[in-house]
Design goal:
Layout: H1 12-35, H2 53-73, H3 79-82, H4 85-91, H5 107-124, H6 130-133, H7 147-171
Helix pairs in contact: 1-7, 2-4, 2-5, 2-7
């Protein structure tokens, strides 16, 4: 498989603008799916499915923080309030979803935290310069081995989890969102 040429300082601005548009599209779709899912069902884990809506939302929040903020500019002092360590452990890669609503944030709290991360990322991303986005990152990475690759992967990752949310909705007996 041939790898595409690495982005250049000249191509980064248009690639970043396109990625931001895809991030916005993916989030609108995620929110549409979530709005059509009764919050009292967010912690149900249908038979033979090892996840639930609450975990998907928490995971998207942690992942978006990691891809759009931490990977780009590192951890800022306010980030511990934005994504506390306990939250990262509950919803990060390798975590195990729980069906116990008492052991995790409510759907409203999950949505609020997800919105805060999205808002901070949306405020910061447009001003990141091309030189920063071309800086290399360690594995794992997608698209390109630089910070821009993390941004490009973010909407793809969110859409994968939209598929999971759609599958969970169907397993819960809910109608598809059209």
């Amino acid at each position: 498989m041939n790898t595409p040429p690495l982005p250049t300082a000249e191509t980064v601005p248009s690639m970043l603008a396109g990625a931001i548009g895809q991030i916005e599209f993916a989030r609108r779709y995620t929110l549409e799916l979530l709005a059509a899912t009764p919050r009292e069902r967010w912690f149900e884990m249908p038979a033979d499915l090892p996840t639930n809506i609450a975990w998907q939302v928490g995971h998207l929040t942690v992942s978006q923080y990691g891809l759009l903020l931490f990977r780009i500019r590192g951890r800022e002092p306010d980030d511990l309030e934005l994504i506390p360590g306990k939250f990262r452990k509950a919803y990060g890669r390798g975590s195990v979803p729980s069906a116990d609503p008492a052991s995790q944030p409510s759907p409203g709290e999950l949505l609020d935290r997800m919105a805060k991360v999205y808002e901070v990322a949306g405020r910061e991303l447009p001003s990141v310069d091309a030189a920063t986005l071309l800086e290399p990152v360690d594995m794992p990475y997608a698209a390109f081995p630089n910070k821009l690759g993390a941004i490009l992967f973010c909407p793809l990752h969110e859409q994968i989890h939209c598929g999971h949310i759609g599958m969970l909705r169907r397993a819960l007996g809910l109608d598809p969102v059209r």
